[in-house]
Design a protein that fits this description.
The complex is a heterodimer of chains A (about 300) and B (about 230).
Chain A (H helix, E strand, L loop, with lengths): L2 H14 L1 H38 L2 E5 L15 H13 L3 E7 L1 H11 L5 H4 L8 E6 L5 H8 L5 E6 H44 L1 H9 L4 H42 L8 H30 L3
Helix pairs in contact in A: 1-9, 2-7, 2-9, 2-10, 7-10, 9-10
Chain B lengths: L1 E8 L9 E8 L4 E5 L6 H8 L7 E6 L2 E2 L8 H5 L2 E5 L10 H10 L5 H14 L15 H13 L5 E5 L7 H16 L3 E6 L2 H7 L2 E6 L2 E6 L10
Parallel strand pairs in B: 3-8, 3-9, 6-7, 7-8
Antiparallel strand pairs in B: 1-2, 1-4, 4-5, 9-10
């Protein structure tokens, strides 16, 4: 099988089947864009998790005058405070412990809400003193909470991760939604490939029957059809890749990143890592669908 | 070269066997006419030789190969040892005479150089060297069948199968095709030709195998169509 002969056949086939080829290219491009978007979102979630999990802490609020928790008997005593600190220090997953007094909390609050009317209603007493604890791994929250929840002087334990997780859940939902649409589109693409190949095989049944009768191998009879599907898939994958790169350049870098400085966005290397996957999925799916169809319609 | 040993073929949706206990032996270099009415089993016999069908019982051997036992991946190589021509020529309408013949070499991976060398010679053999760049639609039926013969013979097969090659041609054109087949036969190529053409068979005086209802009812050297010779 000579390269020039095969490439000539592939070119002829694509031209003759022009509308179907265009449909196939668009279908591959759209489904892969969605696959790419889903992958991009997953990379984005990972990146944000890594960034924020590093910063989040567990807050252990200590009893104040007005606390009603069963571990509280009025404001926390110095003894209880030392005891809590000792318990925290003995925990394996605890990396760092900061103590924040009511006055410190108030100072920070004042800074955060400068100029707001809320400030007038809040006195330093209303803000409980707390221990801010940094864990080696945010997943270990339960261990810390378990060790502290019945210790005298602890009013409540708050995991900042819970707040983040709700946000991540929304992102995950979006991601699965994109993935579901991508899978549906890939399914459509597979059907389209099968139909395109079937039509092409039917249009060229004369050629293929002649090829068979002169002793062409099954591979060389099928290869032009498979390559045609692959060429369409490569063009479609390239369009999808262009879309993904464009959204990184014009949407994320130019629009989102300058305005949302507190969110770490996916880097170019993470975006580029998606590209080979797109080609793999696009070309792999079409070639597989084409081969299976030919097995049925071009019996050896 | 070809051996049928007690071969029967029963198609699934038929009550009577297409081939019924065929014993037939054809030597290298033979020229055999396969005659008989439509439905007598000629085409089934050719199909078994091509491994388009498998026999229900018995064995078909071609060039020492048990055709039914040939694995599928070896069928293409097996088909390359034979050339085939059909009643309807089966040329590619968009390709010139040259390209149609070249197609037979291209699909089995011959180089451009070999193709450029071989095709003028084979077109000369079939008498179409002047028309190499014409399209099939610009040719007469006889000329189209010559192109088909050129394509079947271009890879120098040991065996040439012809299924009613003169079926669509007028008598004088048919004679030209038969002369060509005779020339190909003289190069040592075995020819098996299924036909209805009484005039051709009588003129050529070659071996005749006559079939009826899936059986061979006559096998005669230098025979004539309607004549049992007894």
């Amino acid at each position: 099988m000579r390269f020039s002969f095969v490439s000539k056949e592939v070119g002829n086939g694509l031209r003759r089947n022009f509308t179907m080829t265009v449909a196939l290219i668009v279908s591959v491009a759209v489904s892969l864009s969605l696959v790419g978007a889903a992958l991009l979102m997953s990379a984005q979630v990972d990146r944000m998790k890594g960034y924020w999990y590093d910063k989040i802490e567990v807050s252990i609020f200590l009893c104040g005058n007005t606390s009603v928790a069963f571990t509280c008997t009025g404001a926390v005593t110095a003894e209880q405070r030392t005891n809590i600190e000792t318990v925290l220090g003995s925990l394996e997953s605890v990396q760092e412990i900061f103590y924040e007094s009511s006055a410190d909390a108030y100072a920070q609050f004042k800074e955060q809400f400068a100029g707001s009317a809320i400030l007038a209603n809040i006195s330093p007493d209303a803000l409980p003193e707390s221990f801010r604890v940094k864990l080696d791994n945010p997943e270990n929250f339960e261990k810390v909470a378990g060790a502290l929840q019945s210790v005298q002087g602890v009013e409540s334990i708050q995991d900042q991760r819970q707040l983040l997780d709700r946000f991540f859940q929304i992102l995950k939902g979006l991601q699965s939604f994109a993935l579901a649409i991508a899978l549906a589109m890939l399914f459509v693409t597979v059907l389209l490939v099968m139909n395109t190949v079937r039509v092409a095989a039917f249009a060229r049944r004369r050629e293929t029957s002649i090829m068979r009768s002169v002793g062409a191998s099954n591979m060389s009879i099928r290869l032009p059809f498979i390559l045609e599907a692959a060429v369409a898939a490569i063009i479609g994958s390239t369009l999808a890749t262009a879309g993904i790169l464009a959204s990184k350049y014009w949407l994320i870098d130019a629009k989102l990143a300058p305005n949302l400085t507190f969110i770490p966005f996916v880097t170019w290397s993470e975006v580029l890592a998606i590209v080979p996957m797109l080609y793999l999925v696009g070309v792999g799916t079409t070639v597989l669908a084409a081969s299976i169809t030919l097995r049925r319609y071009l019996k050896g | 070269m070809i051996n049928f040993d007690n071969v029967s073929k029963q198609y699934k949706n038929s009550n009577t066997p297409a081939l019924d206990g065929i014993n037939l032996s054809i030597e290298q270099g033979d020229f055999v006419f396969l005659v008989g009415q439509s439905g007598s089993g000629k085409s089934s016999l050719l199909r078994l030789l091509l491994k388009e069908e498998k026999p229900t019982s018995g064995t078909v051997t071609v060039d020492g190969i048990n055709v039914a036992k040939l694995p599928n991946r070896k069928v293409p190589a097996f088909r390359r040892t034979m050339g085939i021509v059909f009643q309807d020529f089966r040329l590619l309408p968009g390709k010139t005479v040259f390209d149609n013949v070249a197609f037979g070499m291209e699909v089995i991976g011959k180089s451009k150089k070999e193709i450029q060398q071989r095709i003028p010679a084979i077109l000369e053999l079939v008498g179409l060297e002047e028309k190499a760049h014409r399209l099939p639609s610009e040719l007469s039926g006889g000329e189209q069948q010559r192109v088909a013969l050129a394509r079947a013979f271009v890879n120098k097969p040991k065996l040439l199968l012809a299924d009613e090659p003169t079926g669509n041609l007028d008598p004088s054109t048919s004679v030209g095709i038969m002369k060509l087949l005779d020339r190909i036969n003289r190069t040592g190529t075995t020819i098996v030709m299924a036909t209805h053409d009484v005039a051709i068979v009588d003129q050529m005086r070659k071996r005749i195998v006559q079939m009826e209802n899936g059986k061979i009812i006559r096998d005669q050297e230098r025979g004539m169509y309607g004549h049992t010779g007894q």
